[in-house]
Amino acid sequence: MHNTTALLIELGAIILVLGLLGRLAGRVGFSPIPLYLLAGLAFGHGGIVPLQASEEFVATGAEIGVILLLLLLGLEYSASELVTNLKSQYPSGAVDFVLNAAPGAVMALLLGWGPVAAVALAGVTWISSSGVIAKVLGDLGRLGNRETPVILSILVLEDLSMAVYLPILTALLAGVSLAGGTVTLLIALGTVGGVLYLALRHGRLISRAVSSDNAEMLLLVVLGLTLLVAGLAQHLQVSAAVGAFLVGIALSGEVAEGAHSLLTPLRDLFAAVFFVFFGLHTDPADIPPVLLPALALAAVTTLTKITTGYWAARRAGISAKGRWRAGGTLVARGEFSIVIAGLAVGVEPRIGPLATAYVLILVILGPLTARWTEPLAHRLTHRRTPPPAPRDEPTVTEPATAVRAGH
């Protein structure tokens, strides 16, 4: 009874604090994610008020939070749209990977963390935050802009790439041999391919089977199906988050719209718990030693993400203003960066504090670059453009010039 009482008190305090922080972030106009991370640091090991009774519950809630984040992202796309994006935007995805994974890998090697940690930190710096970026696009009223499909295509390619990257990283972290890693990757690719095939060929049947006019039944069936597929995907060495993303893609039409509205509050709750959970396992005293590398990585990868978005939008025929907006919007990092760091802390504990500081910096900077990159670029390029040469005006003291001008 005592443990249950302590659990309820701690959970109530956490959720109340998260609600207040979310309200504060909404008034200021920023993403609440950095405040959630700071709350986790305050409640965690080495924090002001360490938690004990609710830690296991929060860990489970964090897993559900990641699953719901990716499920609702998948609900934004149909399987046909996904395939079309893959065919048209894969060069942009390749440029995104090269420009943004390289800084993380190089930084890990410079810090002497070894090749496995380099692969992990490359993923941390590579993946943009789909959740933060989707919120920023909505807040800025850019969902209908011409550059927005380019941004979403890059995000989809990144999320889908996790189906390949996460099994490889998991095998490396576990010390699996090359043969074992190859088998794991093949299983992962086969699972993803099978789910995509079902989504493309039988998506309507799946949606029809899940559909219900009763909101309660629809919520239970979609949530149960998602958790089941996520668990099976995890068992087959595929990320549970990727499994949830593919479930979202398989659902379409009214089912997707209804599930999205029903699950959004649950996603917001458990996603907040996820970010708190990551902060709980990071000692604030570990952040100052890695703050300079985090700032350096943030500065470099801000420029590389802006370059990525600009290049992708230019390739799609978007105007210069749209190119700068696309680049600035892609800067934010978030959920996947923290997921990757959470997997890698067993090999290199310093990745956790570095990733926390890095995400904190870019999740604050991301909404600012989304808003101000295009106006700032316009102002700088306008200053560099030389003014037009002054035209000679005729005067009463120069009659010959006036005659020539008139002639």
TrEMBL record:
The chain crosses the membrane at residues 6-26, 33-51, 57-78, 117-138, 150-172, 178-200, 212-232, 290-312, 324-345, 351-370. Keywords: Membrane, Transmembrane, Transmembrane helix, Transport. GO terms for biological process: proton transmembrane transport. GO terms for molecular function: antiporter activity. GO terms for cellular component: membrane. Residues 379-407 are annotated as: Disordered. It is a multi-pass membrane protein. Residues 15-371 form the Cation/H+ exchanger transmembrane domain. It comes from the Bacteria. It is found in: Membrane. Belongs to the monovalent cation:proton antiporter 2 (CPA2) transporter (TC 2.A.37) family. This is Potassium transporter. It comes from Streptomyces resistomycificus.
